[in-house]
Amino acid sequence: SISGTKKFGASTGFVDGGMGSTHFNQTHTSVVGSQQTTANLKGKLSALQEMINQLNEELNFHKKEVSILKSEKETLESVLTVKTQDVRKTLTNELFRVEEGMK
Fold it and tell me: Which residues form a coiled coil (predicted)?
């Protein structure tokens, strides 16, 4: 081929050295690169959204667990308070009987 002549390629545009071919290839590369960047960004955004959704589900699960644990804690505190009062009452009654027995 002679420098400066242009041959039109089937799939890529100008072939073999004309000044127009350089501009076309740069533009084509820029468009393809831009499309790939857009696809990459969309993919990354999609992956981030999926991660956010998973973290949100996990956070909600842990919130429920904390709520259940708080409820169990309150129930146990209530039961222990009742048992403590019962033991105190039993010991007070036993002390009274022992004191009455010593008289």
Answer: 38-79
